[in-house]
Amino acid sequence: MRRYNLRVLFLWFVLLGTLSSCSHREPHFRIGISQCSDDEWRHQMNNEMLREALFYDGVEVEIRTVKDDNIQQEKDIRRFMKEGVDLLIVAPNEAEPITPVVEEAYNQGIPVIVVDRRILSDKYTAYVGADNYEIGKAIGKYVANVLHGKGTVVEIAGLSGSTPAMDRHQGFMNVVADYPDIRLLAKEDGAWLRSQAEEKMDTLLDLFPQIDIVYAQNDRMAAGAYAAAARQHREKEMRFIGTDALPGEGYGVEQVLAGELDATFIYPTGGDRVMQIAMDILNHRDFPRETLLNTSVVDRDNALIMKMQTAHISTLDEKIETLNGKINQYLARYSTQQGILLVSLVALLLVIGLLVAVYLSLRAKNRLNRELSLQKKKLEEQKTQLIHQTELLEQQKSQLEQLSRELEAATHAKLVFFTNISHDFRTPLTLIADPIEQLLADTSVSTQSRQLLELMKKNVHILLRLVNQILDFRKVENGRMELRLEPFDLLDSFRGWNDSFRMALLKKHISFSFETTPDADFRMMADAEKMERIYFNLFSNAVKYTPENGKVIIRLEMAEQNFRLEVFNSGSYISSTDVEAIFERFYQVDGHQAGTGIGLALVRAFVEMHGGNITAHSDEKGTTFTVTFPKQDISLYHPTVVTLPAEEKEVSSTLVDAEISTEGEVAEADCPTVLVIDDNADIRTYVKSLLSKDYRVLDAADGATGIRLAMKYVPDVIVSDVMMPGMDGVECCRRLKSELQTSHIPVILLTACSLDEQRIQGYDGGADSYISKPFNSQLLLSRVRNLIANRRQLKQFFGDNQTIEKETISDLDKDFVSRFKSLVEAKMKDPDLNVEDLGRDMGMSRVQLYRKLKSLTNYSPNELLRQMRLKRAASLLASSEMTVAEIAYEVGFSSPSYFTKCYKEQFGESPTDFLKRRG
Ligand code: FRU
């Protein structure tokens, strides 16, 4: 439709274009006129041609005139040729010089009309002019008549090379030859010019005393001859005869009327006729090749009439001119009106065109609208259906979400429940497990009792493992499980752990093979404890689900990018649905012995923490668990520094033999004192039984009592439970640390709760150590021992009482402090030495350095730095001859006065006083 509209518009525009092009007409023909002379006769001829041209549309006429100059005329003609005129009109000056160029134009196909004078060739298209020979004859006859056959004549001829001059003479001579008494005295060349004729006449007058007739070939030359005769007062002696008979002031007709000329002969200009023939030629109409114009005599008898007639004609000409002017005006007006009309027409057509286009567009639009509304209706129906379906889907989705939330909540509740239960279980389990270990260590126990104890021990271990798994899983879920990476050899470790399963395998007659890629390097960065948990869990599952006489195959292989561990056991089948869900927490496979459903979930979590993944596959042959770990370039890794307190390692500790001191056994009087604060009497009793062998043990059932006892006895170590009614362990610790008397006492927090937040709170409260229940009795003992020993070492280490004695310190930390000390000693002279630089040198950030030092020494790095500077200064003051200022600069103070101030704050006297005192 749109295309159709465009087509209609296009046609309109074509039509409009056509109309507008009609209004502008280019000239159809260009006519070039070459005139040989510039005189009144030529002017009349030119005017006639121009006037006549007005009667034809689209004709452009250009006239080029020379002054009797052959060369210039030839140039003019060539120029016309070059410009490509459609037709040439040539009045040749002289026949011979002009003939070639006329022939050339003619040969080029340009129509040429030769006028008035002729050329010496017939290579022209048409000729228009008078018959000069006849004119000459008519004049001859007139002369013979006037002279009655007897007399003398002088002839002043036109330009000798021009044909009228030749023809007129011939015609004249032809007649007078018949009159022997008429003598042509002389013939002179007046070159068609008055001046030249006058000159020649002067000569002739001198030569001939008797001249009856002066025959001048044109009126101009006749006038010149007359003037010459008049000068000699001889004009009355002779008659003057001319040619041309032009009307107008001073020209031929008036010369006759004035009596200067006896007669003149009409030499018609014929310009109108020339132009008519030119247009006939250009329009390919018939035309006469030779047009000879008539002549007639003008003498005293008809001159007046001639004059009147020509005057009349001239008036008519003027009127015609005026009329022409008016016509031009009207034409211009008409043209303007035509233009306006055309523009209006164009506008009208445009409007019509646009209306048609609009109409067609509207029609198309209506049709489209109808189609669209139909489609819209359909779409709306579909939309309604869709909305309905979406609503249904959303309902289902929200139901599913609700279910999922409920499921998640239930799972969470289950986990929380298990976690809580686990916490509750750990304390009694500890209280069972540790005494069992101690009983088993007693060699006097009977074999039967030992077997029972072993059974108890085994089941307590199982329970503890389950409890620990749940607590660990909770940690994983909360994102608080730490990964302690260190170089780890999979092959070495797995091989070592295989031994632990020997007995179990033997019992069920299970064949076992451990296959590996020979000579492969299976080292990676891993958390050894978690790796152990992964391996033990998979291996024990395999053993557990392999029937008697079955087999377990473990493969450790090197894949391209990974290490791959495959644990296969024969005989058990897990359905594909179960396989997919087997790693979900609390998922239990039908037909398998009940478990917590946590073990494999934990395994997967540990595997993923190492960047690996685990999959299971089961078929009628058996079940395979495949674990992959990404291979790493171990040289790029360094063991990850364990940033959590060392006791973290004890979270899932195995129970070892415990030494139990006999309750009530009294420690030596100067042995260290330990204060035990716990609301649980069993725990107090148990801990006391552990410690009483080596320490004096005090105990308190709540925090307030504990603080009171601590203030009173200032124990060497305090062991406190966290969860206590009233003041909890953390608060108790905080108070102890804020009292001057007790702030240096190391505090071990002991609790069933292993959650990190509580540990953080505990440490924030100033606790020195934290031990989770169920705790290892050895661990507790060694922790107590170490705290006391380290406190002493620290004192030694820093060498005086100004330093800190709050914290036990490991070898690693000792090394750290010692490195720090040497670094500061080496650089202390630099007053710009700052924490940032020190941190960088120690391989730590400013914050890390600050925390590390603060936790070890309870001093900030800046405080330590200042103390070390002051100690060095004190030593220099005592041992050297240096001035106070020199010492100040030596130890890195930028101003001696500030040094003096700090020194005095630290040591209670100024350095100068010290020197004075020293003497
Ligand atoms: C005009 C004229 C006339 C004469 C004619 C001959 O230029 O000299 O006077 O009759 O030419 O060609």
What does this structure look like?
This protein is an alpha/beta fold and 919 residues long. Among the domains are: 483-640, Heat Shock Protein 90 (2-Layer Sandwich); 648-792, Response regulator (Rossmann fold, 3-Layer(aba) Sandwich); 811-918, Homeodomain-like (Arc Repressor Mutant, subunit A, Orthogonal Bundle). It has 29 helices and 24 strands. The strands form five sheets. It has a six-stranded parallel β-sheet, sandwiched between helices. Helix 15 (528-545) packs antiparallel against helix 17 (599-609). Mean pLDDT is 83; it is low at 637-669 and 795-808. The chain binds beta-D-fructofuranose.
Q: Tell me what portion of residues adopts beta-strand conformation.
A: 5-15%
Report low-confidence residues grouped into runs of 5 or more. Answer: 637-669, 795-808
State the separation between the terminal residues, measured CA to CA: 120 Å
The CATH architecture designation of the domain at 483-640 is 2-Layer Sandwich
Give me the count of strands: 24
Ligand catalogue: beta-D-fructofuranose
**Helix count from the secondary structure assignment:** 29
Summed over residues and divided by their number, the pLDDT gives a mean of: 83
Strand order of the biggest β-sheet = 2-1-3-4-5-11
**Class by alpha and beta content:** alpha/beta
Radius of gyration (CA) equals 71 Å
| Biggest sheet statistics | 6 strands, parallel
CATH topology of the domain at 483-640: Heat Shock Protein 90
CATH superfamily of the domain at 483-640: Histidine kinase-like ATPase, C-terminal domain
- Residue share in helix: 40-55%
Shape: elongated
Q: Assign the CATH class of the domain at 483-640.
A: Alpha Beta
